[in-house]
Amino acid sequence: MNTTANANLFSRLFDGLDDPKRLAIETHDGERITYGDLIARAGRTANVLVERGVKVGDRVAAQTEKSVAGLVLYLATVRVGAIFLPLNTAYTLNELDYFITDAEPTVVVCDPSKAEGIKAIAAKVNAKVETLDSHGKGSLTDAAAKAKSDFATVARSNDDLAAILYTSGTTGRSKGAMLSHDNLASNSLSLVGYWRFTDKDVLIHALPIYHTHGLFVGSNVTLFARASMIFLPKFDPDLIIKLMARATVLMGVPTFYTRLLQNPALSRETTKHMRLFVSGSAPLLADTHREWAARTGHAVLERYGMTETNMNTSNPYDGDRVPGAVGHALPGVSVRVSDPETGKVLAPETIGMIEVKGPNVFKGYWRMPEKTRSEFRDDGFFITGDLGKIDNKGYVHIVGRGKDLVISGGFNVYPKEIESEIDAMPGVVESAVIGVPHSDFGEGVTAVVVRSRGADINEASVLKALDGRLAKFKMPKRVFIVDELPRNTMGKVQKNILRDTYKDIYTKS
Ligand code: AMP
User: Fold this and answer.
1) Hey, whose CA ends up nearest to atom 1 of ligand 1?
2) Which of 277, 285, 306 for a ligand 1 pocket mutation test, highest count of atoms within 8 Å of Cβ?
3) Residue 441, by phi and psi: left (phi above 0), alpha (psi -120 to 50) or beta?
């Protein structure tokens, strides 16, 4: 094994490994992969990629079910100096056509069931296609089995690209966020320290690996700490509660926590071996935070990040983990709040646009220089698109995406404020507030509410409870009761779908 000291993320992850026999990953079906195995497997796959013509700076796209081989593919791609491009497993062939023709990868790795359709798309950009199924089997693994495990890690500098992750693109086209070796390494190393990861930690890894949360936060942090992870193909509450008896950390999206709370087996006893529960990728309701603490004795540690920036803020390891807040800027990261129109930096406690700067912030959008320019301030701060405030104690609070802001009768209405009022009502599970076209007001504030089973809640009772608590212009004009809110795989409420569902309610005569 040859790992030249350089800024390649792979070298930074594995150079100086003390004990190759140390456990890195165990799978739900009992496979155990040591750090030495992982490096050797990455070496074999790296040799296959090079045989397939992958050169430094080329893209390797992957739309595969979660498997250790899928993670190895990521490590191998980085190792050869190429750029890893993971794709959400939910994307259809039609959507893949856009990503593949936009990114022009040299190799596309996909599930065998999709190979035929993908071959037709890959042919347009002369990409080779390899397969990998949910058990890690396929043409890529077959070729890797025959390849050598030695591979000289390609030297890269801090700013060279290691990955491109496409944003979910709920408005307009998806954009490829270009992430450098140092973006990924510096952020993970910072989290190892902030969250006190050590080689004794065992992470329950139940997140997908096509997204920044599971791929970088989960996997890189574990590997940098020489900890180990239990790799689960999907979220399974019963299994996760069982695994807590020998694990130490869980990283999840808020829906993990709400679903685990519905499980009667969750208790102080079943979580007593755990030291840390991390939540992110979508807002964790303050109620969920409190309920979790009451039930388990653990305060969930909420953090805030995004595809373009890795992690920006985190609640403290020691000290108050404030329900509904995403904590302080991580070491080396600057966070500020500015006026969305003028860019003027705002005082604490004032709501505005959250902007960030630091070694975590991406290099720009793939082949979109104009878009990239328009999302950065002249002094290098990235305009996140999230609205929020920094309170007097330095905690960042997010009130929603800028595009979710409702402007009704010329007044700005922050959905979070109304959602918090509704969520606090007895019998309400959660809510989403959206703006939809309104002939008089421009947009009409509209609430979509999920009630708990059997709760006696309806439009009139919600409006009555809000009356007097909110200024008139913030009051929802309509309230709809639903069974559940639409969410994507990362647990984010899809307000675009709600806006579409209710788009005609105030305009149809
Ligand atoms: P993604 O690029 O898919 O990771 O989505 C990033 C977006 O998720 C951010 O811009 C926020 O809008 C949202 N997000 C991430 N973490 C949190 C959090 N802890 N609380 C509220 N929103 C969050």
Assistant:
1) 306
2) 306
3) alpha
